[in-house]
Amino acid sequence: MEGYMERMFLAGVGALTLTKEKAEKIVSDLVKKGEVAKKDQPEFVKRLLERGKASRAEIEKIIEKTVTNVLGKLNIPTKSDIDALIKKIDGLVKKK
């Protein structure tokens, strides 16, 4: 059981780059070792892929938040700041 838990942890970490083929290989190895029942194989692959998708989405949110925070600290204008300036300049040009 300890090996099974370790594999699940490693599979969770590896889920960030997990493809369907990799998931099927991991689960196939677990089936061969008797750690997962053959009848549970398709569901297990599906769960690994879902975990990978959720992990990627969570990491993307963290990265986006971090980048936004860093850009704010560096006082670099955002796209919306630049768009607002363009709109303001267009308005000033039209007045002339």
What would you say this structure looks like, in words?
By secondary structure, the protein is an all-alpha fold. The chain is built from four helices and no strands. It has helices at 2-14, 20-32, 41-73, 79-95. The longest helix has 33 residues, at 41-73. The protein starts with a helix and ends with a helix.
Topology:
Blueprint: H1 2-14, H2 20-32, H3 41-73, H4 79-95
Helix pairs in contact: 1-3, 2-3
Number of helices: 4
Helix % is: over 70%
Radius of gyration: 24 Å
Number of strands: 0
> How large a portion of the residues is in β-strands, by DSSP E?
under 5%
Q: How many individual domains?
A: 1
The chain-level structural class is mainly alpha
Give the gist of this structure.
By secondary structure, the protein is mainly α.
Keywords for this entry:
79% helix, rod-shaped, 4 helices, 96 residues
